[in-house]
Here is the input.
Amino acid sequence: MTKYELLQEIKGQLKGWATEIRFLKSTRKQDKRGDRLLYDIESDIRELKHRFRYHHIAYCEMRGRTREQIEQPAEDNCPNETKIVKIKNEWKAKIDENVCVD
Here is the structure.
């Protein structure tokens, strides 16, 4: 897998998560949530937003963006660097498996 192919795959995954987050947000109202509990919906949204944020940061950094260009979080909302490094290392390992680098 080349770096380009991996980035395209990741971009599609990010888009899928964003779509799912928007859908879940639209199901919060009582008449649209059916049998699901609001707590379960909120929990799913929170988990997806968390996953999306870390993968988005890693994706942008692999494309050459600086952290300041990606986001400017509040002091008490800084991302976990070890998670971001772990994600990027997994992706680099995927690229190195095929020894194909753009």
User: Anything to note?
Assistant: The chain has one domain: 3-97. DSSP finds five helices and no strands in the chain. The radius of gyration is 16 Å.
